[in-house]
Design brief:
Blueprint lengths: L8 E3 H15 L3 E5 L3 H4 L2 H6 L4 E3 L4 H13 L3 E7 H4 L4 H9 L6 E5 L17 H6 L5 E4 L3 H13 L4 E4 L4 E3 L14 E4 L4 E5 L3 H14 L4 E5 L2 E3 L3 H11 L2 E8 L4 H12 L4 E6 L9 H7 L4 H12 L3
Parallel strand pairs: 2-3, 2-4, 4-5, 5-7, 6-7, 10-11, 10-13, 13-14
Antiparallel strand pairs: 1-8, 6-12, 9-11
């Protein structure tokens, strides 16, 4: 069984910052906007190198989305950054009307997603953003798993024509994907090949799925692990082919089980290849204040929860 090793814990928001800085050097049309969270979004290097291409909007997220939409008309590629809670729920009307409806080439870059922003508390956490964004026609939705993948995704979305929601996080997590990877929007990445159960994971749960697969293997259970970094468009072919082989599936995400990856997978399987499915996700609840580790444990968003779900779904085959 292949061993995935972390090169060290790094925050995915820093991967975004590194990608944005590189884009600043490569593409003169890339501009950045921020709602008073430059440090949190790791945008300072881009600003230092391109001060004339940065717009500090202040705590006015709705205005930021309107400005970003307007900038696209002149051929710019705006990267609008703030916390995921403020990048979606607070400005949904502006995104729907000014960006998605008219297909504007805006990149909505959302940090501090899920519960793993921890001590910032429940009011700053969001567990429904993937659902909100995937329901918008024409919106591409990406949820990256580590620093390297976030940097690669940031570079890739600049080449994609159309609105994108890029979701990443605050905590330092294992950095295990290749530094030189080519990020393909809508193309899932198979990490382990297996025959007994499929584990489809996204974001911070991908590393947890890897750990779960290793433990399951020690128990004699062969788990296929697939990194679903793009929630929309979903790689339906990879999902269907895997579940046809294994006969059951576990989805794992740092998001409400309502509206997230799990629901998209369930619809895909219902239409093409019905199979037993278990959901590792929050259960129709808000978060609370605590360390990322405490919250992942409380809400069942870790390797132990994935193992439990895999063992349960196997009994339903």
């Amino acid at each position: 069984m292949k061993e995935y090793k972390s090169t060290g814990n790094k925050d995915t928001r820093s991967g975004f910052g590194a990608g944005l800085t590189e884009l600043g050097r490569k593409n003169p049309n890339v501009v950045a906007l921020c709602a008073d969270l430059v440090g949190s979004l790791k945008m300072q290097d881009f600003i230092d190198e391109n001060p004339e291409r940065f717009f500090q909007v202040g705590i006015a997220e709705a205005n930021m989305m309107g400005m970003a939409a307007g900038l696209t008309i002149g051929g710019k590629i705006p990267f609008a950054g703030t916390f995921a809670n403020f990048a979606t729920g607070r400005v949904y009307d502006q995104i729907r009307q000014s960006i998605a409806y008219s297909g504007k080439n805006v990149k909505i870059c959302a940090s501090h997603s899920g519960v793993t922003l921890g001590e910032d508390g429940a009011t700053h956490q969001i567990l429904e953003d993937l659902g909100l964004m995937k329901m918008l026609p024409g919106m591409t939705v990406i949820n990256t798993c580590d620093y390297n993948q976030t940097k690669a995704a940031t570079l890739a979305i600049a080449e994609h024509e159309g609105p994108v929601y890029l979701r990443f996080g605050r905590p330092k997590v294992a950095n295990f994907t290749p530094e030189d990877q080519k990020f393909e929007i809508g193309k899932a990445v198979q990490l382990y090949e297996g025959s007994d159960v499929t584990i489809l994971a996204t974001g911070h749960l991908v590393w947890e799925a890897i750990q779960a697969a290793v433990e399951l293997n020690e128990k004699g259970i062969s788990a296929e692990v697939i990194d679903i970094h793009t929630i929309k468009p979903l790689d339906e072919e990879a999902i269907i082919n895997s579940v046809k082989k294994t006969g059951c599936v576990v989805t794992a995400e740092e998001h409400n089980f309502l509206g997230g990856l799990g629901e998209s997978v369930a619809r895909t399987l219902a239409e093409n290849h019905p199979a037993p499915q278990e959901f590792v996700a929050t259960q129709d609840t808000f978060g609370e204040s605590g360390t990322p580790e405490q919250l992942m444990e409380k809400y069942g968003l870790n390797a132990a929860a994935i193992i439990k779900a895999a063992e349960k779904v196997l009994k339903r085959k």
